[in-house]
UniProtKB/TrEMBL annotation:
Coiled coil: none annotated. It holds the Pfam family VWA_2. It comes from Archangium gephyra. This is von Willebrand factor type A domain-containing protein. It comes from the Bacteria. Residues 394-563 form the VWFA domain.
Length: 590
């Protein structure tokens, strides 16, 4: 390994602008806020309690299922910081988060912030007290996020998300942050909820007025969630049909003010299927168009989920459900049915995350494992295609295999196996480097092919990033004039001076549009700054992300989109991903 004293273009934290902070949030914010199983808190990081090593248990604090507060506080603080620096950017980002991403926890957190932040359309007065104009009303964006509706779309808030917005705002640590930001009465003991109650009431009213929509939510398993939203919002239904659909028996309040739903309720009850035969249960499912969630908890214990019952439930399953339930379909022998297999394979093609890589562990068939890995590949292909739809993008991947990568190279391989298959092979150029560059080419655009390509790489030798650039040039890599070249380096950044790295691009005739760093270090002491300095020398956008972010199956497509639409850095004009966020129309209440 060779190191040099270098000047880094990276801004100090105090000088980092909202665009840089927003990008950091997206590239490094994979942590989930809600977990449905017991966990362990290890220095603010959530780990599953099941299967944890004794050493991890010893160093941790047990946490119950539900909101993981340290992750929620970290994310909300980041959002508040961006809001303080650029309120308009935060407003556009909230709109972007809902309509352009599938990041459920981010939608909840941004919605919560927009509902309580202080720009609420209040009058701004002249010195004499006359109203000069009205301030921007960005709380409307929070309302629109809750009310936004697209039939059969994942890009809107579910009932569970609507409830979680309030639960997040009521969390004492989040309420404290909001009071400190001036979003609520500092003397009040109640958490600031902003407009949540009023918009939750409107959200419930719309569904009460459209009973098929309300019935659909009940069938989807949201009955208890709807009740909790109604209680928290203090909702007063117009007719007793609301209570009937929810099967919600009512009694008079202590003050005696209730007038709806006290008499003549014809409650819709969801009885168990005890005593019914398999054929009768299937007939009932088809007659009532029942969902998987509605049925599984009502099945007789001596019968359980049978192939026939599962087949009857298939029309109610989304593509995502089908991918998740692959082990169940396999166990029930349904994957041998031609129609079911065709529907499942279609679902594989529509994957938007890499959760299939986790499902693989519970599948026996090698053929099905390969198909699930294909779903993972499809997710990154879709992310890359979306990010590069507006221009011809070529990608250069340079992989550090020098001696300083000992202990980190395997993590780099795993990250690369999750992302490289997303790029069109004719537009992807890969080289490893130590003091010599070696060009690599996967046999196919798949995770398996990438793993095969990387399996022989071992860490050894010195470090010259430029060697990889020269190796690709000698192998015939050329970039069309109209194309945009993004260089992504994987490693610890410790190597030659940045200006020497930059010189290699100029010598080879490559005009770099943006640079990114996938940071993989054996120890913090090994971290250099060759790539950052090079980006500064060339005055191009620079972004970085830790390779451990790619362990999260949901984070991979998000990171790729942000990297491919590279943000600005020192000396570069605003472009790329942040500009895409700012082009997102602000949500409005219809």
């Amino acid at each position: 390994m060779t190191t040099h004293n270098q000047t880094t273009p990276t801004l100090p934290e105090a000088q980092r602008g909202p665009a840089e902070k927003l990008l950091d949030l997206v590239l490094g914010g994979s942590a989930h806020l809600w977990h449905n199983r017991p966990g362990l808190d290890v220095n603010g990081v959530w780990h599953a309690a099941q299967g944890a090593s004794p050493e991890l248990v010893r160093r941790s604090t047990p946490v119950k299922p539900g909101l993981f507060v340290p992750a929620a506080v970290k994310l909300y603080r980041q959002l508040l910081d961006i809001y303080r620096l650029n309120t308009d950017l935060m407003a556009h980002f909230a709109s972007y988060a809902l309509t352009q991403t599938d990041w459920r926890d981010l939608k909840v957190a941004t919605c919560a912030l927009m509902l309580v932040q202080s720009h609420s359309g209040q009058p701004v007065r002249e010195d004499d007290g006359a109203i000069a104009f009205l301030d921007d009303d960005f709380r409307v964006i929070g309302e629109a996020m809750i009310l936004h509706y697209e039939r059969k779309s994942t890009r809107m808030l579910t009932p569970k998300a609507v409830l979680r917005v309030a639960e997040l705002l009521e969390t004492p640590e989040i309420a404290r942050l909001n009071r400190e930001a001036g979003f609520g009465d500092p003397a009040s003991r109640k958490a600031p909820l902003g407009r949540w109650k009023s918009v939750a009431t409107k959200w419930l009213r719309l569904r009460e007025q459209n009973l098929p929509m309300l019935q659909g939510l009940v069938k989807a398993g949201y009955k208890e969630t709807l009740k909790r939203i109604a209680r928290k919002a203090g909702y007063k239904p117009v007719t007793q049909a609301f209570f009937e659909v929810l099967g919600w028996k009512q009694k008079q309040a202590a003050a005696g003010h209730r007038s709806v739903g006290l008499e003549g309720l014809n409650l819709v009850k969801r009885e168990r299927f005890d005593g019914l035969s398999e054929a009768e249960i299937c007939e009932w499912i088809e007659l009532e168009r029942l969902s998987y969630k509605e049925v599984v908890g009502r099945l007789p214990k001596d019968l359980g989920l049978t192939p026939a019952i599962m087949a009857a439930l298939l029309p109610s399953l989304s593509d995502r459900d089908l991918r998740i339930l692959t082990p169940t379909l396999e166990e029930l022998g349904l994957m041998s049915d031609a129609a079911i297999r065709a529907r499942w394979e279609k679902a594989v093609q529509t994957a938007t995350d890499q959760r299939a890589l986790h499902i693989v562990k519970n599948v026996r068939s090698q053929e099905l494992k390969a198909k699930l890995e294909e779903a993972s590949d499809n997710a990154v292909k879709a992310a890359v295609a979306e990010a590069t739809a507006e221009m011809d993008v070529r990608v250069m991947f340079l992989i550090d295999k020098s001696g300083s990568m000992e202990g980190a190279i395997e993590q780099s391989k795993e990250a690369l196996s999750r992302i490289l298959a997303g790029f069109p092979m004719e537009k992807l150029h890969i080289a490893t480097f130590d003091t010599m560059g070696t060009v690599l080419k996967p046999k196919a655009a798949s995770r398996a092919a990438v793993q095969h390509m990387l399996q022989g790489i071992k860490a050894s030798g010195g470090t010259t990033h430029a060697a990889g650039v020269h190796a690709l040039h000698r192998a015939g890599m050329r970039v069309p004039e109209e194309a945009k070249l993004i260089c992504i380096v994987v490693g610890d950044e410790a190597g030659e001076a940045g200006d020497q790295f930059a010189r290699a691009f100029r010598e080879c005739g490559y005009t770099v549009a943006a640079m990114a760093m996938l940071v993989s270090v054996a120890s913090a002491a090994n971290r250099g700054n060759t790539v950052r300095t090079c980006a500064g020398q060339m005055k191009v956008p620079f972004s970085e992300v830790s390779v451990d972010q790619f362990e999260d199956p949901y984070q991979v497509p998000r990171v790729l989109k942000a990297l491919m639409d590279a943000p600005t850095s020192v000396g570069a004009s605003q472009s790329g991903w942040v500009e895409r966020v700012m082009r997102t129309p602000l949500l409005k209440v219809a």
